[in-house]
Amino acid sequence: MVARFSQFLLAFCFLVSVAANARGFPELTDLIEQNSPAVVKINTVERSRVARNAMPPQYQQEIPDIFRHLLEPRQPQQRPVASMGSGFIISKDGYIVTNNHVVDGADEVRVTLTDRREYEAKVVGTDPRSDLALLKVDASDLPTVRWGDSETIKVGEWVVAIGSPFGLDYSASAGIVSAMGRSIPNESRENYVPFIQTDVAINPGNSGGPLFNLNGEVVGINSQIYTRSGGSIGLSFAIPASLAQDVVAQLKDKGRVDRGWLGVGIQDVDRKLAKAMGLGKPSGALVGQLEAGSPADSAGIKVGDIITRFDGEKINMSGDLPHVVGQTRPGSEVPVLLMREGNERKIKVRVGALPGDDDGQQASSAPASSDVGGRLGLVVDDIPDALKQRLGVETGVLVKQVVPGKAGANAGLRGGDIIAQLGFDQVESLADYEKIVKKLPKGELLPIRFFRGGQPTFRTIEIEES
């Protein structure tokens, strides 16, 4: 009897274990088989933009003739740089979503499908703030993926990534959602993406690939990993599908992304500040700085206020506020709940447009007309004062439009860049720019210095006029 009971107990435990494993480890073969055809491998080529430093002509006159030939600029060696990433098809007529950093600065973009079809892709628009880009290939009846609802994802939920890590085509990896709403500032210290954190194995080459839920719907776009070795250590971050769909729709419609803007500098509220401000627990975004004339200033928000809700969304930490404000349409009037001197107040704020978005952050997709953009193929303007203050620049011109195939586009410039130097001349204003462009020689590589997101960059530019 005891032996039979022991056998029964062992069999029962085995069945329980099998059932638990069945619940804990889902069957993924159908999901991967059905969605892999819509995942693409992206290969890009960027030609070298590095030029040899040259001495300004006024100083060359002081050099003896016997040594002057040593200082003459030489044609730099062109060294194309190839890189790769992933993407996914969202429409049968060839629209593809990927990361901005996958195609940033690329002179050539090619996508490959699982059946080995290969297409040259056009960059419809990019959004560095969300690290998203929209591509288009000339094809029809392509396989597509379905968008899912990233707002309903829960921590612990199973998710699957498909992409090309290290160039290994169409690899799949699975894991769980580790956290939601992670705030990770970009290189410009901006924070407009509430990332989905997962423990899915994401490696270089997975960037831009889809993150699926168990229904086979895209709930995120793999964008970043945290690593000390260059490979996965179980900390990966994806852009939520809800944000991506809005960005992609704007890029497709107008080639840029408009974001809401308040004009405040914020910080977290710690335990002592919460007690001093009359809050039951640390929460909200404390206004530590207020830009004069900004939407927040006009609405009556003051330094020292703690914003606890914005347009009905609860603000638990300061990083939550840019996420919510950025996704609010400029011009919208929304309710804001805040604490001031221990008292709760409710005010209305008319949200402004984030400087830099409406001031020319256009995709490089202007019509290639011979009279658009002049010799460089760039439509430029003076920098708005609000953008100068935000980026900390005093001089230069703002790129508002880039004509494909002309000198500016070939140099890798894009809308929103600020040109500070052309050749060896500093660009102080729009009038300066126009004078300098007129005298630029054709057929010569010249240095160009510009700011992108507040960061200075040197490249070369060449006018190829007939």
TrEMBL record:
Transmembrane segments: none annotated. One of its GO terms (molecular function) is serine-type endopeptidase activity. One of its GO terms (biological process) is proteolysis. Its main location: periplasm. Residues 246-315 form the PDZ domain. PROSITE patterns: PDZ. GO terms for cellular component: periplasmic space. Residues 1-22 form the signal peptide. It is found in: Periplasm. Substrate binds at residues 101, 131, 205-207. Its EC number is 3.4.21.107. Keywords: Hydrolase, Periplasm, Protease, Repeat, Serine protease, Signal, Stress response. Might be efficient in the degradation of transiently denatured and unfolded proteins which accumulate in the periplasm following stress conditions. This is Probable periplasmic serine endoprotease DegP-like.
